[in-house]
Amino acid sequence: MLILLAAIFVLHIIGVIVLLVATIDNAWWMMPNISTDVWGRWIQTNGVWNLTDIPTGSHYPQDYLQAVQASSVLACIFSILGIFVFVAQLFTLQKGQRFTISGIFQLLACLCIMIAASIYTNQFHLDENFGWYGHCFILAWIAFALTFISSIIYFVLRKKTA
Amino acid sequence: MGRAGPMRGVWLGINQGTVCFLLLSCFEALCRVASSIPPLHFLSPPCTRTRSRVGLFLDRLLSGLRHPSFWELPAKPETMLTLLALASVVLLGIVPEQSQAIVIYTGWERHALLGSDIRLSCSFFSWRWTSEDVTFSWTYRPDGSRDSISIFHYTGGAAYVDNKGPFRDRVEFVGNPGRRDGSILIKNLDFNDNGTFTCDAKNPPDIVGRPSSVRLLVFEKVPIQAGVITGAIIGVVLGLLVLIVVIYYLMRFLVARRVFSLSVSKHGKKKKEGSQQRQGPVPPADPSKIKV
């Protein structure tokens, strides 16, 4: 039981780390010498990286960008709250009960990061052939899978020892 | 900016002390609320420790004030002198503020749509009463130019607006000098109105002050400010979460109270029935005894 609990805890922590990297690092879309989204744009000129603002225009809708920012931050918050709730439930649950509230928090985090990644996929860089998706975008989708698995495990798991 | 060094220190010290005390009491109240929520019961031991410390400090303060010897003159002259010096420093700290500079408040930046009207607000803070000779004056400096022209002046109870410059027939005074408000309204904005507007207010004899500027930006379409939507979404979702948790615990508390009151009334009824049964068989026994 202890090993199972440790594995679930480690899975949750890995989910939190992946979410944090995907939210904080500006690397959802990459071009040669440019790494961009969602908070700013890194441009490399003469070997020096400079942080500039994301260009405004019709190909970069500001409101959708802010929605992506908001939901990815919310996913991080829900996942981190989920860790504390899981530890609290470990000590307060009766024997045989399920970790439903932790599961709900992880499910909310999964939902939020799915919203963020979907909006980004659908609204940005639609006609650009000159570039590729960066590591943060891939990590966002991986975080979606990890948090989903984690929440299913919390909904199924029962407390074995008192 | 004009205040004497040591007096400012004393004033700051008093302010910081009050803030500290308020923070401690807020923390204590929060601790009490938090430790009553079941998952956070582990918070109660450290909270009671802080609570006892704050309570002890309060008790000492109040008991000190209530003690009769507090209100008698202390016997030692040194303590009297130090108290007198402290009181005079505090009082002297207040008095020079009456001749402080006048502080003028306008916005920092204003965004407006092409063709709309905009109200540029200007108000001031002064230690003196608002005099009858209060003056407001607005000047305008276009973007990229170094000269500024005057577009509005209020003095002697009358407002004088621009009648020759770029803002002729477009400026209107909408302020209330009696309430220290010197705002103006500019109508029908154009792209040439981009620039910096400076408000200068004088409240005789309080005339030393720094004029404050507001920058006007005219857009065809007002852009979304950075972070407004992000903050709104995050705030609303977290607020809903907190609301749901609060409502859940409230419902549980109310249901538990109702169940408790119901069980108390049931227990009371059962007790009454039990005592009535015991009294029942006694009366018929008496007439038989009397017969015998």
UniProtKB/TrEMBL annotation, chain A:
Transmembrane domains' residue ranges: 7-29, 67-87, 99-120, 132-157
Source species of the chain: Cottoperca gobio (Frogmouth)
Pfam families (UniProt xref): PMP22_Claudin
Cellular compartments annotated: Membrane
Alphabetical list of Gene3D superfamilies matching this protein: 1.20.140.150
Keyword Transmembrane helix included in the entry's annotation: yes
Homology family: Belongs to the PMP-22/EMP/MP20 family.
UniProt keyword list: Glycoprotein, Membrane, Transmembrane, Transmembrane helix
Entry annotated with the keyword Transmembrane: yes
Protein's membrane topology: Multi-pass membrane protein
This protein's name: Epithelial membrane protein 1
Cellular component, GO annotation: plasma membrane
TrEMBL record, chain B:
Membrane topology qualifier: Single-pass type I membrane protein
Keywords in alphabetical order: Disulfide bond, Glycoprotein, Immunoglobulin domain, Membrane, Signal, Transmembrane, Transmembrane helix
Residue numbers spanned by region Disordered: 267-292
Keyword Plastid: no
Database matches in InterPro entries: Ig-like_dom (IPR007110), Ig-like_dom_sf (IPR036179), Ig-like_fold (IPR013783), Ig_sub (IPR003599), Ig_V-set (IPR013106), Myelin_P0-rel (IPR000920)
Single Gene Ontology BP annotation: myelination
Principal cellular location given in the protein's record: membrane
SMART domains given in the database record: IG (SM00409), IGv (SM00406)
Protein name according to UniProt: Myelin protein P0 isoform X1
